[in-house]
Amino acid sequence: MFRIGQGFDVHQLAEGRPLIIGGIEIPYEKGLLGHSDADVLLHTITDACLGAIGEGDIGRHFPDTDPAFKDADSAKLLEHIWKMIREKGYELVNADCTIIAQKPKMAPYIEPMKARIAELLECTPEQINVKATTTEQLGFTGRGEGIAAQAVVLLQKAK
Ligand SMILES: Nc1ccn([C@@H]2O[C@H](COP(=O)(O)O)[C@@H](O)[C@H]2O)c(=O)n1
Ligand SMILES: C[C@@]1(CO)OP(=O)(O)OP(=O)(O)OC[C@H]1O
């Protein structure tokens, strides 16, 4: 049996924060604001995974009112959800993700992100696609106020 899920997330850019996307720290003058480390891409993938198994969203599993998740490593949150998915007997077919950011240039970090996401989802980097786009200076991403990400994941029940 196949199950598909999609995710979308946005975090605001602010000074004095590290920029962590797809589990990789990217050198930049600003970082993403959030209750956790605000890894917008891992949050999006977590939501897509939860969507695929009909289990709501990241905020339902890890409320941003819970001090336990203050400054949480988003990789740990995804690991927890991925364990739930494996226990239900699913494995990843593939994931396709888009980072929407005017700056910085994501291209040098795409391969490390794929490798890290593959590690978290217990698959090969070839099963993960990560791409990036600007919004041609339009909207909140175009003005550099924030970064968005979206993802689709396809799961298959292992035989
Ligand atoms: N933050 C970003 C945005 C884009 N890229 C790469 O540049 C290409 C062109 O972007 P457009 O928004 O002008 O279509 C895009 O296809 C990405 O390869 C990037 O690395 N980082
Ligand atoms: C990850 C959580 C929990 O620390 O916090 P944030 O980093 O604010 O992220 P968001 O995508 O707004 O929602 C999920 C949250 O509950």
TrEMBL record:
- Give the top-level enzyme category: lyase
Q: List the pathway annotation.
A: Isoprenoid biosynthesis; isopentenyl diphosphate biosynthesis via DXP pathway; isopentenyl diphosphate from 1-deoxy-D-xylulose 5-phosphate: step 4/6
Where in the chain is the site Transition state stabilizer? 35, 134
Residues annotated as binding 4-CDP-2-C-methyl-D-erythritol 2-phosphate? 9-11, 35-36, 57-59, 62-66, 101-107, 133-136, 140, 143
Entry superkingdom: Bacteria
The UniProt record lists the EC number as 4.6.1.12
Which InterPro entries does the record associate with it?
MECDP_synthase, MECDP_synthase_CS, MECDP_synthase_sf
Question: Which PROSITE patterns would you find in this protein's record?
Answer: ISPF (PS01350)
Arranged from A to Z, the UniProt key words for this protein are:
Isoprene biosynthesis, Lyase, Metal-binding
Which molecular-function annotations from GO does this UniProt entry contain? 2-C-methyl-D-erythritol 2,4-cyclodiphosphate synthase activity
Full protein name: 2-C-methyl-D-erythritol 2,4-cyclodiphosphate synthase
Q: Gene encoding this polypeptide?
A: ispF
